[in-house]
Amino acid sequence: MIEKETKIINIISNYNRESQNISRLLIDKLRKKNFIVPKEYDDRAELNICIGGDGAFLRAVHKYQFPNIPFIGINTGHLGFFQEILPEDIDQFIANYIDGNYVMEEIFLVKADIYTKKDYFQLFGVNEIAIKGIKSKVVHLEVFIDQNHLENFCGDGIIVATPAGSTAYSFSSGGSIVYPSLNILQITPISPISSEAYRSLPNSAIVPGNSIITIKPEYRYENSILIIVDGIEYRYDNITKINFTVPKKSIYKLNFDKNMYWNNLKSKFL
Ligand code: NAP
Ligand code: MN
Question: I want to staple 75 with a disulfide (CB 3.0 to 4.6 A). Which of 36, 80, 109, 179 is the partner?
Answer without folding.
Answer: 80
